[in-house]
Amino acid sequence: MVLQSSERHYRDWDHRRLGPWCSPTGSPAPLSCETGCGEGSWILVCRLLVPTQVSLLSMEEDIDTRKINNSFLRDHSYATEADIISTVEFNHTGELLATGDKGGRVVIFQREQESKNQVHRRGEYNVYSTFQSHEPEFDYLKSLEIEEKINKIRWLPQQNAAYFLLSTNDKTVKLWKVSERDKRPEGYNLKDEEGRLRDPATITTLRVPVLRPMDLMVEATPRRVFANAHTYHINSISVNSDYETYMSADDLRINLWNFEITNQSFNIVDIKPANMEELTEVITAAEFHPHHCNTFVYSSSKGTIRLCDMRASALCDRHTKFFEEPEDPSNRSFFSEIISSISDVKFSHSGRYIMTRDYLTVKVWDLNMENRPIETYQVHDYLRSKLCSLYENDCIFDKFECVWNGSDSVIMTGSYNNFFRMFDRNTKRDVTLEASRENSKPRAILKPRKVCVGGKRRKDEISVDSLDFSKKILHTAWHPSENIIAVAATNNLYIFQDKVN
Amino acid sequence: MSIVILCMSLTPHNPLHHNDELIFHLNWVGASHVHFVFLRPTMLPVIQFMLGKGGKRKFDEHEDGLEGKIVSPCDGPSKVSYTLQRQTIFNISLMKLYNHRPLTEPSLQKTVLINNMLRRIQEELKQEGSLRPMFTPSSQPTTEPSDSYREGPPAFSHLAPPSSHPCDLGSTTPLEACLTPASLLEDDDDTFCTSQAMQPTAPTKLSPPTLSPEKDSFSSALDEIEELCPTSTSTEAAAAATDSVKGTSSEAGAQKLDGPQESRADDSKLMDSLPGNFEITTSTGFLTDLTLDDILFADIDTSMYDFDPCTSSSGTASKMAPVSADDLLKTLAPYSSQPVAPSQPFKMDLTELDHIMEVLVGS
């Protein structure tokens, strides 16, 4: 790993921070390619695995990232369930990419720096740090295990040389500090080089310890543990734009935390009914507004989104805005409610729109219009006739996520058979791509895929009946300013980049 | 004395296809002083679904049967298939709720969605029931007992070519109704096995109300056991549940529900069963109770065991029967099945059942 001074980090961050990526219509300066997803083509940058061995590597050792990446790219057929990636998130500059898996591990990848002699390697991500974030626990009161699976990771904006992220499992949120150490003090008086204490009687001279450069070491330390505030399973965390507070949402409650205080949190939303038998709706996702620190939204299992203003009252049970689309009577079925359950809600970078993902569609809402979304995109409408089987095998409960690109012009979400879909909001074009091992040659251009819904199947099309429903892409992430996407398929992390020129 | 519930198990590596012969093996639990109550293997179709789980199988393997037969209601299908689909979904939902034995807490969102589904279906049934206040159970002793058996297992049409099957009536009575005295199974093993082949040909409509008499005798049997052995909580619960069953089913008028009913629209089938069993099973609040409170508050409140049939007619959640029903359900290897009960063989089995009970009582 290249030795980097912390000062350089700071400078880079400053430069990127000023990029106008918040503007909804203008193209941000660093965006490498302004063509929409329809015209551009996507190439595979790298495919990364997270095998169990990585966790055995000590942080102190000199980690040759190239070696690790090569071992990643070997075909590990023995991937364990603990390696299944459960969340993917770029940090605010896009330099770091964090993944959480079912085994409670967090792996952070860092973008390869540009170098003159290896220009083509820019855009590749290598392992930066790995640590065990959560351990499995046992709830003795209910005799149930608490999974260590990382449900969400959210980065804090960088304020000094270290990186901070929040990671959460079902019950506990932790704040991790990831910092680099590239200098080591040498020349202690009371300890020798191995750290053993020296006999004071043998010391004849005193010296001042000096800092000497060492091989870069990345260490992660838990700085805060926010525990015991959620009876139900945490499904979302969201950092507020004031960078001092964040919220954690479970099925029935949303709590507001201050980063400094771990033993208290404010409850800002509580939809638990007095009589649990009357429970018909749960919270499925929640997010703070990107600019207004008093505003947040949360979505429900009934397909509704509520926008709340914390200035209105301490307990935001009464919403400020209520977004719901009236049901289409022609599409009514037994499963209407289940497929309307929103699995993810995301504010646009501009803060003007929200995007919601339910089972079959992605919808874009204007915050100023509550009665219906402004755009609806069908992700895999061919599944509408298969809902009964999907209900039977539980696939109908899969929680797909959705992401905006940096300029809010393209949205992306996952589907089955390792397909993921991109929708260009401006040109109204969409594309289906596949993240698979067969197309895993680096720099290979992804071929658009098509699902044929019946009748004659053209060449290269795949029929609905041959879709593999065990291969689902639930988690994706888009670089905040460039056209680089990370797609998690089971235990593989695919990184694709828009092919420039 | 304890009651051991046997359930069927199918070899997982031998998945069923709708044209295959149904082969099943019974796992015998051998022990002294253990008495067997057989669970009616009427959930075979659904068990096939369960085998199909695992996510590795291609979608088409277990979808071809069911999906092809189910017409989405918005296409204006026949009412029968709509009811059949509704029934299927109801059973799947029940199975999901009760068959899940996770090490970790089940997802609340999933539970709530499934409960809402069940509630909605039961609301529909309730409304349909209220639209048809009178039904004449014309006694139509169609055939011998084997006919009735034919009804049972292929509750889901995917096992047979699409024909308007009676949807399962006793859908509203999930598990209590599927208990059959051991003697019945002994007698009709063969017919059961071979009935599948005959099934497609004659969709004889079963009478759901026959469940009531069946339940009656069985519940009385359980009652006797319970009297003798009041310590076991499961029998307690079973007795409490069957108490409630008995109470309401007697209201339904067990007498009139004799033979298999005349073939009619499936709705009427459901409606027949409703008056008798509605109070017991339809308050989906009980399902919510089971899934949420049962997890959250694991203690069973025994004060709820005196069940008053009148009070739960509102259909709202009544905690009383539910808790005991839960115990019963738990002990009964949770397959929500089509309760199929032959009526005529049932009568003669009453005596046999008495005999069995004597044996049980004796030991």
Automatic annotation (TrEMBL), chain A:
The gene is PPP2R2B. SMART domains: WD40. This is Serine/threonine-protein phosphatase 2A 55 kDa regulatory subunit B. Belongs to the phosphatase 2A regulatory subunit B family. One of its GO terms (cellular component) is protein phosphatase type 2A complex. GO terms for molecular function: protein phosphatase regulator activity. The keyword Cell inner membrane does not apply. Keywords: Repeat, WD repeat.
